[in-house]
Structures are given as C-alpha cells and as structure tokens.
Amino acid sequence: MKKKITIDPVTRVEGHGRVTIHLDEYGKVEDSFFHIVEFRGL
Amino acid sequence: MKRKPSLPFHLAGCFGCHMSMLDIDTDLLDIVELVAFNKSPLTDIKTFTQRCHLGLVEGGCCNDENIETLKKFREMCDILVVMGECAVWGGLPAMRNTIPLGECLEEAYLNSVTSEQGENTVPYHEDLPKILDRVYGCNEIVKVDYTIPGCPPSPNHIWKVVKSLLWGEDYSLLYSEFKIRLIDYMSMIKSQRPSKCPPYESRDGAYGIPVQTRDIQDIN
Predict the structure, then answer these.
(1) pLDDT digit string (tens) for B134-149?
(2) Inter-chain residue contact A33 with B62, CB threshold 8 Å
(3) Which residues of B touch A9 (CB under 8 A)?
(4) Residue B214: which pLDDT band, with cuts at 50, 70 and 90?
(5) Touching check for A19 and chain B: CB below 8 Å?
(6) Is B36 within 8 Å of B64 (Cβ atoms)?
C-alpha cells in the first residue's frame, strides 16, 4: 500500500516549511518534497 | 502544582512574536514551572495531545490550512489569545489585500525580474495549501478572547498577559507602557549614533525623491 509521510511544520528552519515523503507499496521512498507553504507576494 | 497545558502557535507570520516571547528570558523558567507546552514549534509537537487552557496564536490566515489550524485551536483551547499585528488584522502579509490574487501570483512567479518568459509557472501541487483571496485576521475566522498588539509585542506584555490569564487576573496594556518603550528605543538609537553623523538622507535620490528625515532630537 502506498503511504505518505508528512512532517509539518518543519520547525528548525527560519520561515515556513513542510516535508512530504511518498512511499511505494514496498515501503521504499518514491518521491520526496520540501514545500514552502507560505506566500507573501510583495 | 499541576502544570496547565498551554501552547503558542504560528500561522502566517514571521516568527517575530515567538522570538519576542523567547526574549522573556529567565522568566521563561517561571512559565515552564506553570505551564506544559503542547502543540507548538517550540516543542516540535505536531498535533494536540490534550485540551489546552491557553492558546497563543501568531500570524493571520493566508491559506486554507491556516484556517483549519486556527479552527482546531479554537476548539481545543479554553482561552484563545492572538499576539502581534498579523494575528490581529493580517499585518504585513495583508498588504497584498489591495491587489487581486491573480495579479499577485503573476507578479511573483511569472513576471518577476529573475523569471524567464515562458519558463516559470505558478506553483500547484496537491500537497500545497490553497492561497486565500486575501489575508484574514484571526478574529474574522474564529472568536478571539484577547489580543496583544505590537509588531512584535514586547516580551514584557506577553509575559504579563500569560501570567494574568493563568491566575485569572485582569490586565490591560497601558499606553504609558508603549510610550516608555518608544522613548527607550529612541534613546538607544541616539546613544549609538556618532555625534558627527548627519541625519539620514537617501543617497543621490536613488530611491526617488530625497527625504529629509526628522532628527531624533525632534521626536524626543
């Protein structure tokens, strides 16, 4: 079964961050992302 | 004495209020005696483990996840306190409220000075939170019990509010306290500035029309 691990918020950084790790049915890492979830837009 | 579960948390802000809270310094040791921090960036606890007595929120709501987090907070906290201008009315992120979101995103991701024509896209991913049409203050989303103004609020104010709420005492921030803080700040700047240094003027009008700023003396 596919699984997604989310680490949110990442706290030992300056600013906002989130890490998502996608695992395949064998529990191996398929993909991983570091997201910047905040938008200031100025 | 049983420690009351309390928590500070962070939405769309800059962590400045949390930094100001850390500036409570050695009095933090007293706070640790009185409260047990739950979900918070300080403890790295990601989800609520129990109902909390006091919730301190920094930052407004700029995406759908901020709203969910804030609602969860309201649900789990007996007293909800928002600290800092962002949480009170949106603060600096709310500067984008005068510009339609589409234009904001285009300017930031497509037409910025470093982006190449046709190379950039506006980020979209199922794991990314959805940006709201504008930035909302916390009281527009949920009922807020108390606010601590300031950008950031003085550590002294945060400490007094937390202490008063835990003991169930009344406390209002006085104008005189703000005034004292401003005068302290001004005298600090004054003492740091060499006496020969002229008042600041923008160099060669590089930022538009040169502005003659008032001398610190005038303000004092």
Answers:
(1) 888 888 889 998 888 8
(2) no
(3) 10, 41, 46
(4) very low
(5) no
(6) no
CA distance A37 to chain B (A): 6
Tokens of B39: 């979900």
| pLDDT per position as a tens digit, A5-29 | 998 888 777 778 889 999 999 999 9
Interface check for B63 against chain A (CB to CB < 8 A): the answer is yes
Q: Provide ipTM, 2 decimals.
A: 0.80
Q: Which residue of A has its CA nearest to B122?
A: A39
A14: closest chain B residue by CA: B15
Contact of B82 with B54, CB cutoff 8 Å: no
H-type alpha helices, B109-199 = 155-167, 175-192
Q: Does A9 touch chain B (CB under 8 A)?
A: yes
Higher-pLDDT residue of B3 and B91 is B91
From chain A, the residues in CB contact with B16 under 8 A are: none
At residue B117, φ and ψ (nearest 5 deg) are -55, 125
Residues 6+ apart with CB under 8 A from A29: A21, A22, A23
Chain position carrying tokens 């047990």: B36
Beta carbons within 8 Å of B163's beta carbon, 6+ residues apart: B169
Which CA distances in Å does A31 have to A23, B22, B118, B191? 7, 36, 26, 55
Cα B135 vs. chain centroid, distance in angstroms? 13
Q: Is the pTM of this model over 0.95?
A: no
What value does the mean pLDDT take over residues B34-47? Answer: 76
In terms of Cβ atoms closer than 10 Å to its own Cβ (0-12, 13-18, 19+), residue A27 is: exposed
Picking from B42, B62, B125, the nearest residue to A39 by CB comes out as: B62
